Amino acid sequence: MALSASQTLNYPVDRVAAVFADEAFQRHVSELVGGRLESFTVDGDVAGAFTATVVRQLPTQRLPEIARKVVGEFLNVTQTETWGAPEADGSRQADIKVKVAGAPVDVAAVQRLAAEGDATKIELNGTVSSSVPLLGGKIASAAEPMVGKALNIQATQAEAWLAGEIN
């Protein structure tokens, strides 16, 4: 299933990228959706190329009942973001991989933080897939709206975080 989301924040790219690489912010987002941040690591300097790995435990109450019976009350989700160094105009890009332990769902996406003056346009494009024979398409299509919503929550919360409304 195709995944696409876009949002503009009224802050420069370097500040938005720094928030995405902030453990306290990642903990806030995890708890906001009823989950828990299990671990967070950043390898490299956020001012250049770096990799951020977020492991969350997330509730499954919004999944269809049949899926909850298979995966239980919580899912462990590992999100790995491999960020390139800033471009000449400050724009940045990350390759994002999401793995869900115990569930046959994978996400591969590219997130771009495009500099638009003092603002940042966040663009995310990717795919949600499932390796289950015959049912993979249905599983992926059920997961896609939740993945898109989660990524939009992160962007919305980043703006509130930068405005000092929640940190």
Structural account:
With 167 residues, this protein is α+β, with helices and mostly antiparallel strands. It is built from four helices and seven strands. The chain has helices at residues 13-20, 23-32, 65-71, 136-162, and strands spanning 2-9, 36-44, 50-59, 74-83, 92-101, 105-116, 119-130. Strands 1-7-6-5-4-3-2 form a seven-stranded antiparallel beta sheet, with helices on one face. The protein starts with a strand and ends in a 5-residue tail after the last helix.
Provide the fold topology.
Elements: E1 2-9, H1 13-20, H2 23-32, E2 36-44, E3 50-59, H3 65-71, E4 74-83, E5 92-101, E6 105-116, E7 119-130, H4 136-162
Antiparallel strand pairs: 1-7, 2-3, 3-4, 4-5, 5-6, 6-7
Helix pairs in contact: 1-4
Pfam families: DUF2505
Protein name: DUF2505 domain-containing protein
Organism: Sinomonas cellulolyticus
**Form type:** globular
- Overall SS class: alpha+beta
Number of separate helices: 4
Q: Please mark out the parts with pLDDT under 50 across 5 or more consecutive residues, or reply none.
A: none
Largest β-sheet summary: 7 strands, antiparallel
- Kindly report how far apart the N and C termini lie: 34 Å
Mean pLDDT: 84
Q: How many whole angstroms does the radius of gyration measure?
A: 16 Å
Number of strands: 7
**SSE order, as H and E?**
EHHEEHEEEEH
> How much of the sequence is in beta strands?
35-45%
Strand order of the largest sheet: 1-7-6-5-4-3-2
Task: Determine the fraction of residues in helical runs and give it as a percent range.
Answer: 25-40%
